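Morning!

As promised:
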Amino acid sequence: MSEHIYIFDTTLRDGEQSPGATMNIQEKLRVAKQLEQMGVDIIEAGFPISSEGDFESVRTIAKALERCTVAGLARTNREDIDRAWDAVRAAKYPRIHTFIATSDIHLTHKLKKSREEVLRDIANAVTYAKKMTDDVEFSAEDATRTELSFLIEVVRTALKAGATTINIPDTVGYTVPTEYVHILDSIRKEVEGIEKTILSVHCHNDLGLATANSIMAIQHGARQVECTINGIGERAGNTAMEEVVMALRTRSDLFPYETGIDTTLIYPTSRLVSQITGMKVQPNKAIVGANAFAHEAGIHQDGVLKEKLTYEIMTPESVGIPKSSLVMGKHSGRHAFRDRLKSLGFDLNTEQIQKAFELFKALADKKKTVYDEDIVAIVMHEVLRIPYRYRLNYLNIVSGTSAIPTAVVTMEIDGESVRDVDFGDGPVDAALKTIKKMTHSRSRLLRFAINAITGGTDAQGEVTVHVEEDGISVLGQGAHTDIIVASAKAYINALNKLELQKAKRGKNIVTQDTKKGVI
Ligand code: KIV
Ligand code: ZN
């Protein structure tokens, strides 16, 4: 019989540490529900001590989920652990995940602690957390650059104190498969009683080896894999969940393991995370990239037409890529629309369904056919989004071969209607300049990207902007059939996120920057 591999998803914690990938509470809750529906075993919902916002979102997710374990991250001090416990205690299955760095590099330069002090911290933290819940995970940060004999001591200490899961992270994506399995084999050989705990792996992708390291680790005793959707995460990201799950499934001849993941939800979840975070998936990304199942070369196309097995090792349907996502037009009724929302995984209240339906009708008036992707964009960009301080009410652009590009904008700013006008080098520039003037923003636009959500000249354009102010960087997104409107919406979304981050920073116990520095 296949052994179970626990999927620990950290999209909402490590994933959210990707530059610019901040999510608000509603967005995190939406992702958490989707992950639960997919069959994830453990969701790391955040780092509760890092900010009020993180605390609230972990608590909200803990209350909302029914089947998943919900983990909150904590350093080894009591204040962190108390805060993590307060955030996850309402969960049906709560977990405290405590960590400390164990490599000499971190001990000397970051923690300024001796090895003895670190061992004491681990014992105290795990013992303290065990008073609150039986489910305690310990992580030895930078384990792969930790001297092996000391790492073994660390694992013994955590195990003795009662850790039920022990994680050996490759924090800086430094290890390679042969070295990683040597570390795991040594731990399993040297630590008496290690079989009483679940051995976990958490790999970063700095050398592009995160998935390979995780898969090899499973073959050497790891039974929990920490990962994220689309592999997002700190720097080059974390192990991509879809890659591990599909590797195990596709090569079941080699791997006698199973996960609880419904693989047909992989693609919709990838889209959801990409739309919420604004982080595009590269076209050649394994499993979920736009080209992952596209056959371009004539010889390949010919082969696939004759027999799919020639060039396809898994089917697009198995990861939930729809054959045709054509859904509805302007004659589709409310009932069919509500059913479609449900099948796309949205659990909306009556008011939200009404709003989505009105927007769908307006879009169907402009566009002959409305695709699933269009509906997802409506819900994500218009229905679930909280406007916070700024909202676009009206935009009129004058532009053309001989006109000076001019934008007239009306916005709601803190509940008041404000109007202004400005010129620019082009229509997008004019719109963004006017909005910047109206909001008195000091931010800098770092990147502007535009994508068609579906095919055809009537497709909605999806704009992503990367904006930075005082070291806070955020991604904003907007979608519309008019790309100038989509650009204005994306920019306003980014400005709202910036305001939210600035407000959070004001209230932070550990600021976003130090949070990034800590982990
Ligand atoms: O990369 C890392 O070491 C981490 C730990 C907190 C698990 O994210
Ligand atoms: Zn990490």
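The longest strand covers residues 93-101.

Hope this helps with the figure draft.
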